[in-house]
Design a protein that fits this description.
By secondary structure, the chain is mostly helical. It has one domain (3-237). 77% of the residues lie in helices and 0% in strands. It has 11 helices and no strands. The protein has helices spanning 3-11, 14-33, 40-43, 46-57, 65-80, 82-87, 92-112, 128-162, 166-184, 196-216, 218-237. α8 (128-162) packs across α9. The radius of gyration is 18 Å and the shape is globular. The N and C termini lie far apart (48 Å).
Length: 239
């Protein structure tokens, strides 16, 4: 197996994705922990807030339940993939290559959306550390909700109902999740005023991130999303 093939296959696996995402997860949760002002509910990114509301239905109320649940999912996934460990070497250098790859994809996304980048991120909070926390959290939780969960669920439903092939199911799931991803930003007290132009901007961004998730897995997609948001944040704060 060539280096490129081995890298491509290994780094899109759940184990590499979750280990790669773990530092951003810790940075986000630590940032939330040290944010004690009244803007904490506004600071949380939309996907984070939505999943916390869902957990509250089951009596799990508080800022840290989602983080604990995400950490539990990491542990369960690593345990479920334990057979993968016996057949695969965890190569530390691959994580450095994944960082550079994520930087590349975030740059591609930024160039693709550069003319309308201001619509793609609206950081809240008065302090830069809060905005950085928000950008990192968006990469983790929005990709976890709209790509990992939503695309997988939609693809599974199409497979169950229509018996279509896996590729078709995932492509349809990608388009539907991109639409839901875009609509989601107009919902709630802090949602934007609806505009078809802004909807299409976010829809195209959702398609790009969906394609990246299907091809490269959760880890690289989450990092690319977070780095992209940080690039936008840097551009906004320096203008």
């Amino acid at each position: 197996m060539s280096f490129v093939t081995k890298y491509w296959n290994y780094t899109k696996s759940p184990i590499y994705s979750l280990l790669f995402t773990l530092p951003f997860f810790l940075i986000y949760e630590i940032g939330i922990f040290f944010t004690t002002n009244d803007d904490i509910l506004v600071l949380r990114n939309g996907a984070d807030a939505l999943m916390r509301q869902i957990l509250s239905i089951f009596g799990l109320v508080g800022l840290y339940w989602l983080g604990l649940l995400f950490l539990l999912i990491i542990i369960i996934t690593l345990y479920a993939q334990r057979n993968f460990w016996s057949n695969t070497e965890i190569i530390g250098n691959y994580f450095f290559f994944m960082m550079f790859e994520s930087l590349f994809w975030s740059g591609v996304l930024f160039l693709f959306m550069s003319n309308i980048y201001l619509f793609l991120m609206n950081p809240n909070g008065q302090y830069l550390i809060q905005q950085i926390t928000l950008a990192i959290g968006a990469g983790i939780y929005e990709e976890f909700l709209f790509r990992v969960i939503l695309i997988s669920v939609i693809a599974s439903l199409f497979s169950l109902i229509f018996k279509w092939n896996k590729k078709t199911n995932y492509i349809l799931g990608m388009f539907m999740s991109a639409g839901i991803f875009s609509v989601f930003h107009f919902i709630g007290d802090y949602g934007d005023y609806f505009s078809f132009r802004i909807f299409m901007v976010r829809f195209l961004a959702g398609i790009f991130l969906g394609m990246l998730f299907i091809l490269r897995g959760f880890g690289i997609t989450a990092w690319s999303h977070s780095i992209y948001d940080l690039i936008v944040l840097t551009k906004i704060t320096t203008e």
